[in-house]
Specification:
Blueprint: E1 3-10, H1 14-25, E2 31-35, E3 40-47, E4 50-57, H2 63-71, E5 74-81, H3 85-94, E6 105-106, E7 111-116, E8 126-131
Parallel strand pairs: 1-4, 5-8
Antiparallel strand pairs: 1-5, 2-3, 3-4, 6-7, 7-8
Length: about 140
């Protein structure tokens, strides 16, 4: 793992939360994106090297909707940048971690992603993410 890429925060009202984070961080989101596979809309903020991803459910089937129903708004996941997501997934599987998907999938912010089950990471949902390089 190279570094923390971002922290994902689940929110009920994306516009309201975005305004709050604009005031808090002193910057506007640099990207808004819908991730259809995850049923979410995201706003990304960047301060220095740190990024915050606000996640809002597109529908009740979204894991974000279920997360908010169960735990309320708040930190949803911590994402780590990796150089080779396939190698990192295999390394973690070999160590006994449970992955939530067998293959990486397209995520927000031009990334391939994979989640590690929180039951194997002291209750914290971990996301692996690798920048997609377009030749």
């Amino acid at each position: 793992m190279e570094k923390i890429d971002h922290i994902g925060i689940a929110v009920k009202d994306l516009e309201q939360a975005s305004k709050l984070y604009e005031m808090l961080l002193g910057v506007k989101p640099y990207k808004t994106e819908q991730v259809i596979s995850e049923h979410v809309t995201t706003h990304f903020f960047k301060v220095g090297e740190s990024k915050i991803e606000l996640l809002n459910a597109l529908n009740t089937d979204s894991t974000i909707s279920k997360f908010i129903d169960k735990k309320g708004e708040g930190i949803h996941h911590i994402a780590f940048a990796v150089a080779d997501i396939y190698a990192e997934m295999q390394r973690l599987k070999d160590l006994g971690f449970v992955l939530l998907n067998e293959e990486p999938k397209q995520g927000a912010d031009n990334k391939l992603i994979c989640f590690v089950h929180p039951k194997t990471t002291t209750g914290v949902l971990i996301e692996l993410c690798q920048e997609i390089v377009i030749p």
